[in-house]
Amino acid sequence: MQFKRSDFPEGFLFSAATSSYQIEGHGFGGAGLTHWDTFAATPGNVVRAEHGQVACDHYHRFEEDLDLARDMGLDAYRFSTSWARVMPEGRGTVNAQGLDFYDRLVDAMLERGLKPQATLYHWELPAALADLGGWRNPDISHWLADFATVVMGRIGDRVFSAVPINEPFCVGWLSHFEGHHAPGMRDIRSTAHAMHHVLTGHGRAIQAMRALGMRNLGAVCNFEYAAPADDSPDAAASARLYDGIYNRFFMDGLFKGSYPADVLEGMGPYMPRGWQEDFDLIGQPLDWLGLNYYTRQLVKPNDGAWPCFDFVKGPLPKTQTGWEIYPDGLHHFLSWVHETYTKGLPLFVTENGMANDDLPGRDDMERMAYLDQHLAAARRALEEGVPLQGYTFWSLLDNYEWALGYEKRFGLVHVDFDTLERRPKASYHAIARALET
Ligand code: FCB
Question: Of all protein residues, whose CA lies closest to atom 4 belonging to ligand 1?
Fold first, then answer.
């Protein structure tokens, strides 16, 4: 790989990310059922109906996995806490084994010199809360705040940073409008409610963590570059609206106390009652913002109902998931977010990486090139004055890639899902060398 640690400022944090349901193995330690278990058990939702009951068995192998993170030379490790592992019904009874697990996990990071970067919620909603409407129910902000109090009451004194929710767009739109993720809904009113409640949930969880005296609290949003599929004004308008739904809705909500007018044109009639009153809660002061970035999307108009757009296959080289490789998008979002919204707040790239058809023994040259190009884009933003303080690889391990099952490999470490053997890929070794210099 081309990049070196010395290309980045002193103190710049390199880390790798995972998430609980994608690696832990949910069938252990008294964890409750989640909506990903029931979604996966319903035919047609997930490739081969694969689920997270064993996943990478990280629950039993976390020491080995954190050794790998340390030996790569990382400074930090981004992980998430499973709500249903800690509170099997989502509310009320606490599963002591679950809390103990995160306690041991955080200590194991600290013992290895890895700064724990915690995410409270990375998508596996307890099924009992899904029964109550999940993200459609306004009470979810209180449930999430209670979970924050329980889990951070135990580990909050030792985590380096914390964030309530990974990728509000995926929790809201992808899961309730497109139906690609649990709970697999396709309903505009459910979407409008979920997109708003994910932000009220964020706000209340931040309040709960501040009340515990925690510092270094942020938000993590994902961004996708929206490009018109052709030169027509209609395609430009479609791309603009997609950008509104994906990128501006959550940024405006968090940092401007409003939602974009073009998105409200379609969603306004379906928003929950009194949504305009919630922006003080949503706009809690933050210490940093995390950006997850992978790809761009080409957008063109259609004649259907709002939002009246479709996606077009683009011409750029693609990853194993078919996502176009577009590093300029990362540079764009770092600059745009800094100039338009965060204005000096520290930024972190909290996820970036690619799926590749990796076979043991074959070097993942494609991944090394992808990472180098994106790290160069991040460095360009830094040189232009964007206060970027860290970069996180997605992902440490091959893992459960949600509706795509186990076949799409994002890891720096190969996992054999039959034997659960871990084998560092060429990219892992290249990063280890780059971080030494
Ligand atoms: C992000 C998710 C992460 C993983 C990567 C590929 O949207 O946060 O869990 O699925 O995409």
Answer: 401
- Catalytic residue chosen out of the listed positions 50, 124, 167, 401: 167
Q: Domain ranges for the chain, please list them.
A: 5-435
Instruction: Pick the residue whose CA is nearest to atom 9 on ligand 1.
Output: 19
Tens of pLDDT along the chain (437 residues)? 999 999 999 999 999 999 999 999 999 999 999 999 999 999 999 999 999 999 999 999 999 999 999 999 999 999 999 999 999 999 999 999 999 999 999 999 999 999 999 999 999 999 999 999 999 999 999 999 999 999 999 999 999 999 999 999 999 999 999 999 999 999 999 999 999 999 999 999 999 999 999 999 999 999 999 999 999 999 999 999 999 999 999 999 999 999 999 999 999 999 999 999 999 999 999 999 999 999 999 999 999 999 999 999 999 999 999 999 999 999 999 999 999 999 999 999 999 999 999 988 899 999 999 999 999 999 999 999 999 999 999 999 999 999 999 999 999 999 999 999 999 999 999 999 999 96
Which residue, judged by its Cα, is nearest atom 10 of ligand 1? 401
Please say if 351 is a catalytic residue.
yes
Helix (H, G, I), strand (E, B) or coil at 318: strand
CATH architecture for the domain at 5-435: Alpha-Beta Barrel (3.20)
d(CA 28, CA 60): 9
| DSSP characters over 102-144 | HHHHHHHHHHTTPEEEEEEESS--BHHHHHTTGGGSTTHHHHH
Q: Which helix (H) or strand (E) holds 348?
A: strand 347-351
Catalytic residue (one of 24, 50, 224, 351): 351
Q: CB under 6 Å to ligand 1: residues? A: 19, 22, 166-167, 170, 222, 292, 351, 394, 401-402, 410
- For tokens 């963590």, what's the residue? 209
Active site residue 50: no
